[in-house]
């Protein structure tokens, strides 16, 4: 029987996908549930598993845009499994066992083989350093490149007489952007063109939070099974500030302003496919431990390419942390249809005035980008000032309990 495999619906708002990569070739035998392709939507990259076992015939090329419900391949389910067929699981199992058996405590990365006229040691050095062998002067017998030749080349610096680039050539490459990247580009341009975006700044003394983490991090990890990070403090402070300034948690719908009696916080995370913004839902009701656990779960899914469309739909406010990449200050772009985004940055020790004296404190710049159409300057400044004050006095995030710090940490 010929089974037509159609593009499943990744989400309500998704009408088409793009074939990012076929993981099998036309005419291959595939097993049921084997991943046969990766497809891009405008929000995420998804895996496409085989619905049945059989011989596959591809009906779309890489880069083709296919409507949801469109046929991408046909599987001949009557085809017999080839005698020499080895399943993916069987093929990977020995390799994993061998890797475990031979792995050293700190194994060196594998070095690809290099097909040049050189001694074995020189070949390894060429591969490890990405050297263009044609640029190396050979001094060995029969014109072979030696270890000494490579060492001389590496210590000689850049060949000023050459017009070649970093890879030893002046080649250019052209690669089509993924559907998700193209959609991000359109959304960012739309935000700049369609919103009255402004950014307000403040600075934050991180010492109180850092002292609190140092004091409780061991017992917090033992009690809740997750590490106590900065993001949970910021998320909790944001939810409390949003309660006081509901327009910052709102959005525009035509001539109407929509506000929310909940805080679904988008947390920007880096993934192999780019920056993704999964949502921590009802963060206003969560403890710090619950926020940390949910952020960890979503970050792992993003890292492993398993993030779902449902994980990223919605959201009323976003937090992004450019500080993990070393950013000192930035003007983050609003994530539409939201109306504001908080930017965190790196922590730098700077001299500041504390009670009339100069002290060295770990300081962070905060940036709030907002849509001035529905958020006034007074509200944006007040919101950011509230976040700052709560983070500089973490126990103020809650308002009851004999020991505010322990109540905050749910210990």
Give a structural overview.
The protein is of the alpha+beta class. The chain has three domains: 2-76, Beta Barrel (OB fold (Dihydrolipoamide Acetyltransferase, E2P)), CATH 2.40.50; 108-162, Dihydrolipoamide Transferase; 195-408, 2-Layer Sandwich (Chloramphenicol Acetyltransferase), CATH 3.30.559. Helix content is 30%, strand content 24%. The chain contains ten helices and 19 strands. Strands 9, 12, 15, 16, 17, 18 and 19 form a seven-stranded mixed beta sheet that branches. The protein has a four-stranded antiparallel beta sheet with strand order 1-8-6-3, with no helix packed on it. A four-stranded antiparallel beta sheet has the order 5-4-2-7, with no helix packed on it. Strand 13 (269-271) and strand 14 form a beta hairpin. It is globular, with a radius of gyration of 27 Å.
């Amino acid at each position: 029987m010929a089974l037509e495999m159609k593009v499943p619906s990744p989400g309500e708002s998704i009408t088409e996908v793009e074939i990012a990569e076929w993981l099998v070739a036309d005419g291959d035998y595939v097993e049921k549930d084997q991943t046969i392709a990766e497809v891009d939507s405008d929000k995420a990259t998804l895996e496409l598993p085989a619905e049945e076992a059989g011989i596959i015939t591809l009906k779309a090329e890489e880069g083709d845009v296919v409507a949801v419900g469109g046929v991408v391949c046909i599987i001949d389910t009557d085809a017999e499994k080839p005698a020499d067929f080895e399943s993916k699981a069987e093929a990977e199992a020995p390799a994993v066992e061998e890797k475990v058996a031979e792995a050293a405590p700190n194994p060196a990365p594998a070095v690809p083989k290099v097909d040049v006229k050189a001694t074995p040691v020189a070949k390894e050095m060429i591969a490890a350093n990405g050297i263009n062998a044609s640029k190396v002067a050979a001094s060995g017998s029969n014109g072979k490149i030696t270890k000494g030749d490579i060492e001389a080349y590496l210590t000689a610096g850049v060949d000023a007489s050459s017009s070649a680039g970093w890879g030893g050539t002046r080649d250019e490459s052209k690669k089509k952007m993924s559907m998700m990247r193209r959609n991000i580009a359109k959304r960012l341009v739309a935000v700049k063109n369609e919103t009255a975006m402004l950014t307000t700044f403040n600075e934050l003394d991180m010492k109180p939070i850092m002292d609190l983490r140092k004091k409780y991090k061991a017992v917090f990890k033992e009690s809740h099974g997750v590490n106590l990070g900065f993001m949970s403090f910021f998320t909790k402070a944001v939810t409390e500030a949003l309660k006081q300034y509901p327009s910052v948690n709102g959005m525009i719908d035509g001539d109407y302003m929509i506000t929310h009696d909940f805080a679904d916080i988008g947390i920007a995370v880096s993934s192999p496919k780019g920056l993704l913004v999964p949502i921590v839902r009802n963060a206003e009701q969560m403890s710090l431990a619950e926020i940390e656990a949910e952020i960890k779960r979503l970050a792992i899914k993003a890292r492993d390419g398993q993030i779902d469309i449902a994980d990223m739909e919605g959201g009323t406010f976003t937090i992004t942390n450019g500080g993990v990449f070393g950013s000192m200050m930035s003007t983050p772009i609003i994530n539409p249809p939201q109306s504001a985004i908080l930017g965190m940055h790196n922590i730098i020790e700077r001299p500041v005035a504390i009670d009339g004296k100069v002290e060295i404190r770990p300081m962070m710049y905060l940036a709030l980008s907002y849509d001035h159409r529905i958020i006034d300057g007074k509200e944006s400044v007040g919101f950011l000032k509230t976040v700052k004050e709560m983070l500089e006095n973490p126990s103020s995030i809650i308002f009851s309990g004999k020991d505010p710090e322990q109540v905050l940490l749910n210990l």
